[in-house]
Amino acid sequence: MIQKSSEALSRRAFLGMAGAATGIMVLASSCDKNDDNMMNNGVDLGSGDVGILNYAYALEQLEAAFYTRVAQSPYNGISASENALLTDIRDHEIAHREFFKSALAGAAISNLEFDFSAIDFGSRASVLATAKAFEDLGVSAYNGAGKLIVTPDYLTLAGKIVSVEARHAAYIRDLISNGSFADNTVVDMNGLDTSRMPVDVLAVAAGFIKTKINASNLPR
Amino acid sequence: MEFLHIINEIEKVDPEMPDRLSDRRTAMKSFAGIGAKIGLAALPFFIGSIFKKAYAQSGPSQNVVLDVLNYALTLEYLEAEFYAMGIAKGTALVPAGAPAAAIKTIGDHEAAHVEFLKTAITASGGTPVSKPTFDFTAGGTFANVFSDYATFLAVAQTFEDTGVRAYKGRAAEITGGGDLLTAALNIHSVEARHAAHIRTMRKANGFGDVKPWITGKESGIGSVVQASYDGEELSTQAGINIVNINGAMISASAATEAFDEGLTKEQVLAIVGPFIVQ
């Protein structure tokens, strides 16, 4: 039922462009891409705002899976405070993941499979370095995707999540080195955080994701 | 069913939007190539000029964008002067070492935000608002703000958390705003990093039982700043209840922490009003 809604959305989007000659071409290329999907060209995130939401869903799946592992087997020498706050972060990421799953409903991508073999979950340094990378990546992903979002309400939702990811990033960074919460590796001389486009984010995330992701239909 | 509501929202979108987007993206692509060559310092000028071209006839109006940017500038003036005055007190206010270094990092960012926004506003064809005259005691409410470390950090936390909510609350107005929207988002997340660190400092000093994120609508400060936290207790997003969502064990606290909430312009101006003399 929800899937139909998604299809209706696509049709509506195409109808919106029907007056333009390019509308027909977009429709045609869309069919090609659907054919590609049938040839197992990876999990298709989709197009438009749904594509961006699936992109966020994929990243939240990654983070939630990582912190679930961290909470299941805390690293050696973890303090009570660190354990409590890393468990908080796990819950936040699961909340984000499940929110996108519910919001996307029938348009949601499937559950992704991950490869965390590069991470030593017993090592504080290994876990926190990975957490820092994921959180900074997540912040840059939401910051970069903002301008691709067409629906104002979705932009607001992304905004509600990205600042929480930034809080996570700051906390993890301070655990590694107090005072590095917003250092010049992520904040430039204008005081601006980092933003990355989906293709760049997914290239980094791909090292941890077994499932092939097809982002070719995302807005650019 | 929640998604159907969201779909309805999309369907309200102006059908000409895709055409406008493609025009803008063409402009932004040409900008991206230029940006790499001219370097960061000159970016705001080019963002502004590209912006004017892209929005001359469509998208969020220039007036709306300039209003949002000047609103942001006012808040950044507030933060920048607050930290500058705190830093000027030296170790009488903020202990040397990590605390002083962190406050300097944050103060430098706020000063950079002021300059960035002034440049971006001018380049976008607007006039930056003047810096207001501030009273960081808020008429005596925080009389010892520059002599008592705990009060200073309490006000800092309130400003940072409010700043995050202020940007978030108006982002939707500049949906499709291209690289200026990106810049606003890039400031927004820096404010959130600041907020997290200030909160950690307060916790470490025993000034407030707070986490880097906001639980419920708790400030860890007191009722005097409650307006900056009211609304953060939301546990339903886009009609979806986050508590124990889809069978996951998500507590009410975690559900509220996982999403930060925006504030309207009116709410923010009411909050910062006591700090602005004129």
TrEMBL record, chain A:
PROSITE patterns to which the protein is assigned, alphabetical = PROKAR_LIPOPROTEIN, TAT
InterPro entries noted in UniProt = Ferritin-like_SF, TAT_signal, TAT_signal_bac_arc
**Can you say what this protein is called?**
Ferritin-like domain-containing protein
From TrEMBL, chain B:
Against InterPro entries, the record matches this protein to: Ferritin-like, Ferritin-like_SF
User: What Pfam families does UniProt report for this protein, alphabetically?
Assistant: Ferritin_2
The entry's protein name is Ferritin-like domain-containing protein
Q: Which organism is it from?
A: Flavihumibacter fluminis
